[in-house]
Structures are given as structure tokens and as C-alpha cells.
Give the backbone structure.
Amino acid sequence: MAQRHVAVMEQVGDVAVVRLSRPPSNALSSEMCTEVSALLLGVMQDASLIGAVIASDLSVFSAGSDVGDLVDPPQGHRDGLRALCAQVASAPKPIVAAISGACLSTGLDLALAAKGRVAGPQASFGYPDIRLGLLPAAGGAVRLAQIVGAQMSLDMLIGGGAVASEAALEIGLIDQLCAAGAELAQAIDMVRDFVDTPPQPQAQDLGADLGAIAKARANLASTDGPWIAQARMLEVVEAALLLPTDTAMTSAYAAHDEVQRGEICRALTYAFVARQRGKSDDAARPQIEADLRRTMAQVVAHFESLSMPRADILGALAAFGIGLSQGAAIPNCPKGAEDVMPALLDAWANLGARLLRTGAAPRSDSIDMAALSAGMCPNWRGGPMFAADARGPLIMRAQLRRRAADMGGADLFSPDPAWDHIIAQGLRLGTYSGPPNRV
């Protein structure tokens, strides 16, 4: 059976039309980037063609990336997208994006690399990447800042919301707004116009741009915490306005790769996937939440029995991010209460192991989903099972044994038999579903 292409090309007179065709959302996989790149290279080498339009065969232009690539990014998985966007931006013939529906994340990276953009009334544009602790992957933040200026770009990049087509036209993100269904025809006309009159960069007010950056930087929480991506975003936008584009692009790639490797991004991405998978766990969640709350109350009572002031215990929870609003500064942990959260995480992990062993929880991420949904853990921490998996079962079992011996609280810290099963089978919490014959 012949392999289905995820990008196809047709010729409309002297203009090539490259269509993205990868249901359901035109996620820009390495395969798609390779196919689009090859088609555009052919356009540039064909003397009968004056330029190209990038359009979509679906109801969306492109809604971003595959979730799998975010959770476990393969080595160099962004290289193809970055090369494609650079190819589009530097093409010797004009390339225009014809946009209908959602144009998000990596899809917006690609559209911004084009010489021009035509959009229909149902189009929307945005970088929700910040919700996963990420920056645009392929230089979109640099191009966006150079097109619409610092204030508008920061609103989109740090705010994470979508911009409708009319607002996109108003801020200069798109060049033309057209009637529904007319995107392709109008984009073809724009290619022909650009052959005669290439687009000129918009003038920017550098003073206002730098002022917007300074104001945004002052508004960031005093502690980096989960907002490291916002800080890097400000640096990228500033570089876009002050440095040569190539240098700014290199800086943007490095910033993206840095935050994607970080613990916060991995936790946010994990939490996102846990929420998606956890929608089917409604029946089990109330009891899991109740068990988590009971364990937290037992840990608080345990430290109170050691004469630790309750205010300090609650302060340690706040320093972990429990009960804080998004974007709030993270308080320092009260002196002497530094072990409260590690102990709670250990107790939660031990509880989670038992819930998996007995079948009370279907998966480890369903336990994290319960903690996230109930406000017992902020998204950027991932969840207690995520934290335990990061340490590994051998370390967790040894830590629980130490706590049970040194601190008492056998009901909280004596390692559940599940740890022995997990270690013997060479598994992690994320891949453990209980012994063959549940105990």
C-alpha cells in the first residue's frame, strides 16, 4: 500500500499551492516538514513558477505539535521545523500563508516565516506554548516581535491566548482579511503582487518596545520558579528588537531547548497529558482525592506531633506552590520546615503505590490528576507520582524505609509491597498496574 503524503502540491497558473494534509490538526511532524521543504525546493527551482502559497486541506491551518513529541521529544525533533521556517523566510520567491481555522504554536511559526499572510474570518492565532512552560520552537517569537512589536507580542506569548483574525489584521499580524473560502485565491493574488512590489518591514517604535519589555520584566514574580519560560521569553523578544535576526534566532532556539529540558516544562507537559487521559477516570477520582487529603492531614499531624508550629507546616506547603494563584511569587519555606514537603511527597507516593497495587487507581497519572484537580499540587510540579518516578523506585523504597525508621509514622512511610513488585519487574510507577494477582 502506497504511503499517504502529508503535504501535496498543485499548480494554479504560475503559482504553486502546497497543502498541509495531516488529520486531524496538521501537527507539524518531522515527516510533514520534510515533505513541505522538498515541495518548496522544487518550486524555487521551477522557472515557470513565481512563488507559492502554503494552505491547508483541513479546517485548521495547523494547531501545533504532536503531544508525543512534547512529552518525549526525540533527539533533534525541532531541526526539521526550524530548517523549514528558515527556508520559507529566506526563499528567493515569495511564499504566502493562506490561513483558515486555528493557526497555533508551530503552525504560527510557519505562517510567520512567510512573506505575507491572508486569513479568513474564522482564523485564530496564538502561542499556547507558555501553558506547557515552552517557548515557540522555530523562531516565531523573534518574527512576531519584529512584525507586531514588543507589547502585542508579549501579550500573545506570555498571555497564551488566541487572537481572532480581525484583531490580527489590526495589529499587523496578518496582511489581509478575506471572506470565508476566499483565502487561497487572495493569497495567490498576494504572491503575484509581491513579485512586483516586495513587502516592506513595518516601522517599530524601539523606545516603546523597550519600555514594554521593562514593564513586563518588573511584573514577573521575584522568584523564577515555574515562570522561567516567561523570563526567557522576555529575553528572546528583547533580542529580536536589538540584535541581528540570525543572532536573535540562535538565542531563541537555545532558550526553547533550555526550558524544554527543564523539570518545570516536563512537569507541565506531563500534567497536560494527565488531564487529557484523566477525563475517563471520573469514577475513581473522588476516592483518590479523599485518600490524598487524608494522607496530607496525617503528615501535617505527624509534624505537629514533633512540636513544629502549624503555621510553619502550612508555610512549607505554600512554598511548594499549594494554594498559590498562577503567577504568584513563591514564598520561602519557613526555617526548620524544609522536610515537610519531601515527607508529604514520600507519603503520597507510598499511598499511590498501594492504590496501584490494589487497583483503586487505574494508572499513576490518574493519581496525579486527582492531586492537580483538587488543588493539592500545582501543575508545574507534575504531581506526587511524577516526582516519585523522577527519583526511581529503588531510591523511593530506601527513602521510605529511612523515614519509617527515623521518624516513625509506619502507616505513612513503611514501604508498600508494591515497591518490591515494581523493582523486581524493572518497572516505574508510570508503567506499573499492579501484580498479576492483586493483593
